[in-house]
Predict the 3D structure of the following.
Amino acid sequence: MRKDSAQAKERRRIAILIAGVGVFWIVLTAVGAEMNWSQRTRALFDLMALTGFGVAVWKLVVLLRAGRDKKE
């Protein structure tokens, strides 16, 4: 049972990561538009958000594989 609760905690962490990166991206996009940041600066934050989403997907794949291996 402890593994299930550990996996549940990890799922929650991944969900928080995805939500946090999404909010970060939206806020910085709005701030950048309001403050007339250059496209280069905005692209940097877009790449940072893309990296954050990539990390979340990677963590999710690892978690799903661990769950699959547990069942076999």
Remarks:
- DSSP finds two helices and no strands in the chain.
